[in-house]
C-alpha cells in the first residue's frame, strides 16, 4: 500500500508534531520542578520517609531538604495524608511517635528537626527500615539514600519478612551505576516500589518498576 503525501500535508504534520513535542518538553520541565518527578503520585495515606544522614550524603543534604519541602507541601499538606520521618546513619532518630497530619507549622518543625541532626557516620538501613515497616499503620516507605549501606541487599530484604506487601520506594543520591545504586534499585524492584535517581544540575534518571 502506498500513501502519497504532498508537501502541504507534510508541513502540516510537522507543525502539529512540533506543537505536541513542545507540550511534552514543557510538561517534563515542569515535573522536574515538583516532587512528582521523584516521588511519583503518592496515593497511600500514611507515609514513612527515611532520610540517610551519613557522611557520604553531606553534599546532597540541601537537595534532600528541598525535595522534602516540596513533597510535604505539594502532596501531603491538605490531602488527608499523614507522615513521619526517620533520620538515620549508624543510629536512627524518629521525628514523631505517631504519624502526623501536616500543617505549615508541622512541616517547618519537621525540617528544622532534620537539619538539627548532625550529619556523619556510616549507613545502617535495616534498623530504621524495620522500625518503619513493622509499624502496622505504615502504608508506604520512601527511602532517600546514596545506598552506601553496611548491609547487603539480601540482608535488608530478609529483614522484611512478614511485610512483603509493603512498597519501598527509593530515591538514590548516587550518580553512577555502582553497587550502592544497584542495592537501592533491587530493594524497590523486589517490593514493587519505584526507584528514582537524583543527580545534580537538574537532571535525573527515573526507573519505574
Automatic annotation (TrEMBL):
Pfam family, one: VWA_3
Domain of life according to the entry: Eukaryota
Record InterPro entries: VWF_A, vWFA_dom_sf
Record field: transmembrane: none
PROSITE patterns hit by this protein: VWFA
Domain VWFA as annotated: residue spans: 46-209
Protein name as catalogued: von Willebrand factor A domain-containing protein 3B-like
